[in-house]
Specification:
alpha/beta; six-stranded parallel beta sheet; 6 helices; 6 strands
């Protein structure tokens, strides 16, 4: 039985598009950032957004004024196709398999420190199995020095490209990856 939170959109299989996955709640900073990325990508390519909000209270501590969020809400943009990822890991991975296929030209995930990013592993595995190039954008590394880059290595090791906030964090990731 389909997840009641899932938003499905009709698909046009004749056109290649970019998949952008990340926090979807437009009332949060991560959701606003993902919306901005989607808007920028949509200027040069069709984009489909996968909203991944795993917590029971996805806005806790990250909420912003509704007026600011409304200005960035891609739901208000015509022509954008959106999907809401199921919260159940198994159902979510199956949904990724349905949404990421040969007509996807790039699969991009957005990681935000401090929230559950475990979904990225399945997202990358599905994209890699479909032969789709992958990119992970990461605002910054987790705050704990002890587990900063190392905690992300197993999660991001299947990405073709990883982009982080600054040069020092990029160097830390390179050291953890060993290349």
């Amino acid at each position: 039985q389909p997840d009641p939170e899932e938003i499905t959109a009709s698909s046009d299989r004749d056109e290649q598009y970019v998949i952008m996955a990340g926090p979807g709640t437009s009332l949060t900073i991560p959701g606003i950032i993902v919306s901005e990325i989607v808007i920028a990508l949509a200027k040069s390519s069709p984009v489909r957004r996968i909203e991944v909000d795993l917590g029971t209270r996805p806005t806790m501590g990250l909420d912003r004024a509704p007026s600011l969020a409304a200005a960035h809400d891609v739901a208000l943009r015509p022509g954008l196709q959106r999907h809401r990822a199921p919260r159940n890991a198994r159902a979510r991975k199956q949904a990724f398999r349905e949404w990421i296929g040969p007509d996807v030209k790039a699969a991009i995930a957005y990681a935000w420190p401090g929230i559950d990013n475990e979904w990225i592993r399945g997202f990358l595995q599905v994209a890699n199995a479909a032969g789709v190039p992958t990119v992970v954008l990461c605002a910054s590394l987790p705050p704990s020095r002890q587990t900063r880059a190392v905690s992300l290595v197993s999660l991001l090791r299947h990405a073709d490209r990883v982009v982080v906030g600054d040069t020092a964090e990029a160097n830390e990731l390179v050291a953890a990856f060993g290349s």
